[in-house]
Specification:
By secondary structure, this protein is α/β, with parallel strands linked by helices. It has 8 helices and 9 strands. The chain has a 6-stranded parallel β-sheet, with helices on both faces. Strand 7 and strand 8 form a beta hairpin. The longest helix has 27 residues, at 165-191. 43% of the residues are buried. The model has no long low-confidence stretch (mean pLDDT 93).
Length: 192
């Protein structure tokens, strides 16, 4: 069983940690907001740590749930970031919604350290963990290495192509839902 690190214990990260630990994987979690990570303290199979380096040095696969590109860049390549402590062969899986260029840049930095990097944003709501769809950008070998973990979270894992491809599809998905929401609001206004 792989050792899995999770960065960001919000609604997505918490559910991912619980699901992965329930499947028998050792899970190491970290959040910049200590109280967020502490909500998982004492759960079977989950260890809360106080630094990114503790996650990076222990995990074979690291899942990230960060709010935006700046936080992803800081978490991966910043001072004290994952790449400072990650072992060669580790794979970082960014499940945040960020621009494709950020994913491509982080993948380039990771490759310099012999660390894999995937962008695998979530298509689905937090409560639907296990039934999510993941559109994944990155190297096929890294997708294959992470597949046992990703398949715990998602009913569908689609390797879309090179780094950044997953976030390209996610952004298109968000545009589609934005258009649907705008149309729905207009129809409701007309119906009034």
């Amino acid at each position: 069983m792989a050792s899995v690190g999770i960065i960001g214990i919000g609604s997505m990260g918490r559910r991912a940690a619980e699901t992965i630990a329930a499947a028998g994987h050792a899970v190491v979690v970290y959040d910049v907001v200590d109280a967020a990570a502490r909500q998982l303290a004492g759960r079977a199979g989950i260890e809360v740590v106080a630094a990114l380096s503790a996650v990076a040095s222990r995990a074979d696969v690291v899942l990230m749930y960060r709010p935006g590109p700046a936080q992803v860049a800081e978490c991966v390549g910043g001072k004290g970031g994952l790449l400072e402590a990650a072992r060669a062969g580790t794979v970082i899986v960014d499940q945040s919604t960020v621009d494709p260029e950020t994913s491509q840049h982080m993948a380039s930095l990771a490759a310099q350290r012999s660390v894999g990097y995937l962008d695998a944003p979530v298509l689905g709501r937090p409560a639907m963990v296990g039934k999510w769809s993941l559109v994944v950008g990155g190297h096929a070998a890294d997708v294959e290495k992470c597949a046992p973990v990703l398949k715990l979270l998602a009913a569908n894992v689609f390797h879309i192509g090179a780094s950044g491809s997953g976030n390209q599809v996610k952004l298109l998905n968000q545009l589609m839902f934005g258009a649907i929401n705008a149309m729905t609001a207009e129809m409701m206004a007309i119906a009034d």
